[in-house]
């Protein structure tokens, strides 16, 4: 998980990173309504900042967030995460969470899930719970399919509905240009579109099967294998996503792909200078939010 710093007794700062999916295959639909996934996920250098403060002698979780569009009640995953931890530990204390939001929302970058993971991680430390990464991931999986990954990053293969996480070493760093088009995509809607747009599920390729057997892979091996099953389902509906992808490739990206169920598209670059130039080019279009970050 992310770096952390004790600000003072009873207070902890946690950095909760965004993720991208370098590969996202959505496989069969399961009897619980979820889909089995095959994904290669990677954290990136764009972080929300969480400040957790324990209030001994009081009760309840209070959330303050600098993004006024986000709910601060139990619809927010960070609040649900804190409630779950406090319920499990049976501790009668209050908690204040302050979130400085930098990761775009409903963007396929896992921001809400990372905030939830960061809250569990931070509370484990603040309250001296002694939970292992696996223990924390098991709590996190009750909150959302992307949450367990954040305990096992920076790079991991993700299966099941998101709870089967196998850490992986990914060698050879790359710069990523993240481009958010300025509109959100709801995950549930994207899965419905995907179901409506395909008749059969193509099997996992031999190359990805081989990749899944390795614990050390290089960026050079991954780049030719990058794919996301949501692209054929969503790009025809949102022309802007395909336009961003084309612009990133024309700006010199080695690969460009939708992240998660969108709406962020990212490009992969070898050099910082190339990434910064590409970011400057694509951010000329109105409404977009762009970031050049290290993987
Ligand atoms: O787990 P999470 O709350 O992030 O999932 C949101 C929605 O995405 C689910 O309600 C489901 O429709 C879809 N989903 C899925 N299979 C997954 C993960 C998510 O069908 N593995």
Description:
- There is one protein chain.
- By secondary structure, the chain is an alpha+beta fold.
- 29% of the residues lie in helices and 33% in strands.
- Strands 1, 2, 3, 4, 5, 6, 7 and 11 form an eight-stranded mixed sheet that branches. It has a four-stranded antiparallel sheet with strand order 12-13-9-14, with helices on one face. Strands 8-10 form a two-stranded parallel ribbon.
- It is globular and about 60 Å long.
- The two termini are 14 Å apart.
- The model has no long low-confidence stretch (mean pLDDT 96).
- Cytidine-5'-monophosphate binds at residues 34-35, 37, 144-146, 161-162, 187-188, 191.
- Cytidine-5'-monophosphate (C5P) binds next to strand 3 and helix 4.
Give the helix/strand layout.
Elements: E1 4-8, E2 11-29, E3 35-55, E4 60-65, H1 77-89, E5 94-100, H2 111-126, H3 133-140, E6 155-159, E7 164-167, E8 169-171, E9 175-180, H4 187-197, H5 206-212, E10 216-218, H6 219-222, E11 227-228, H7 230-234, H8 239-250, E12 255-258, E13 265-269, H9 272-282, E14 289-294
Parallel strand pairs: 2-11, 4-5, 8-10
Antiparallel strand pairs: 1-2, 2-3, 3-5, 3-6, 6-7, 9-13, 9-14, 12-13
Helix pairs in contact: 1-2, 2-3
Bound molecules: cytidine-5'-monophosphate (C5P).
